[in-house]
Design goal:
Helices cover 35% and strands 27% of the residues. By secondary structure, it is of the alpha+beta class. The longest helix has 15 residues. The relative contact order is 0.18. This is DUF99 domain-containing protein.
Length: 211
């Protein structure tokens, strides 16, 4: 494991070697970690499990588990912590949506800065931003700040049959990454596997399908 450093906002990140950085500059994404949260009851308050799966192209190499607060504000720090625990040859962080555990919104530029890795958010369809904004501003503590994080992440862009938000990589690089890690359907394997594992962790079972 690489030595750990400290990034923006005091977030821990792994110090990576020059070869990994060269790969990223050339747009070669062969190793990625994908995160998804576990399902939870509407009335649940407290922590929600988060699963991370590390892939070398389409081969599973490692699984990590963490937790974030329901509608909280610790998702960026927790994801950075988990990335620091992952194998040190990572090229890319994949997220299934910009928020975990309800409205625990990830700060994409901060996560990119903290880990030194490009961050790619993947969604099957473009979200209803008006509905999200209304929910944040009327029902979620700290909702105005969280809405600013969503705005700062930039618009969702069509890419490779899905929609993406990104930090630290171009749209063509995002499309190349999707092609590298996608086998079944339109969702990259690290996200599909994290989704299945997170669901099984809570419900005791899971099956393939729409991630």
């Amino acid at each position: 494991m690489a030595e750990a450093g400290v990034g923006k906002g005091g977030l821990a990140f792994p110090l990576r070697g020059p070869d990994r950085g060269c790969d990223i500059l050339q747009g070669v994404f062969a190793h990625a970690i994908g995160f998804d949260d576990a399902p939870f009851d509407r009335a649940h308050r407290g922590n929600v499990p988060v699963l991370g799966t590390v892939y070398a192209r389409t081969t599973l190499h490692a699984v990590l588990r963490g937790q974030v607060r329901r509608d909280g504000r610790n998702s960026t720090a927790e994801l950075a912590r988990l990335v620091a625990l992952a194998p040190d040859h990572l090229h890319l962080v994949l997220l299934q949506g910009i928020a975990l555990a309800g409205f625990n919104v990830v700060d994409l530029p901060a996560l990119h800065a903290a880990t030194g890795l490009p961050v790619l958010v993947v969604a099957r369809k473009a979200p209803d931003l008006d509905q999200i904004r209304a929910a944040l501003l009327t029902r979620v503590p700290g909702g105005a700040r969280k809405w600013r994080l969503i705005e700062a992440a930039g618009p969702m862009e069509p890419c490779g049959g899905v929609y993406v938000q990104r930090a630290g990589l171009t749209l063509p690089q995002a499309e190349q990454a999707l092609g590298t890690f996608t086998v079944t359907g339109r969702v990259p394997e690290p996200l599909r596997a994290a989704h299945l594992m997170a669901r099984a962790l809570v419900q005791g079972h899971s099956r393939g399908g729409r991630a």
